């Protein structure tokens, strides 16, 4: 690629955010590789050990990070679409989603996995709806549909983990079904 075909903004510092993303991905991959050193390599069923997947992810992340750095330093992402969305941050939506995540984390041992994840879902969906400007976000019907959908998503996940995989998740009762 010759210099006349490079974007006009190359050299003005606009590719630094792209480079920083690449550095972050590369460091994540290298950090995962450092962590994988301590994982046992004893082969299990199928001939691979427990360190296979962390090493694979580490290598792929490192390659992707290096590639992102190379792309950003040789002209930036060339065929990137123009940014979409609002010019300014929609803080109200951010607060709704954050509240859902924080309440889920703080209430999961009190009200159980199913209800805390349902609450998280309902609040996050409300934040995303408000951010996209959808109408009827305050109607009881919308809130009810969101709550039912949250239960329909979180309950099968909870049951799969507790009943079929024997992985303990915080429940409301000791039966493993709620």
DSSP strand (E) fraction?
under 5%
User: Would you report the number of β strands?
Assistant: 0
How many helices? The count is: 4
Helix content: 55-70%
**Low-pLDDT segments, ≥5 res:** 1-12
Quickly give the structural class.
Answer: mainly alpha
Rg over C-alpha atoms, rounded to the nearest angstrom:
23 Å
Largest sheet: none
Envelope shape: flat
Order of helices and strands: HHHH
Outline the structure in words:
- The chain has 178 residues and is an all-alpha fold.
- Helix content is 62%, strand content 0%.
- It contains four helices and no strands.
- The protein has helices at residues 16-36, 52-73, 91-132, 140-164.
- The longest helix has 42 residues, at 91-132.
- The termini are far apart.
- Residues 1-12 have low confidence and may be disordered.
Outline:
This protein is mostly helical and 178 residues long. It has helices spanning 16-36, 52-73, 91-132, 140-164. It starts with 15 loop residues before the first helix and ends in a 14-residue tail after the last helix.
Topology (elements, then pairings):
Elements: H1 16-36, H2 52-73, H3 91-132, H4 140-164
Helix pairs in contact: 1-2, 3-4
Question: Which features would summarize this protein structure in a list?
Answer:
flat; disordered N terminus; mainly alpha; 178 residues
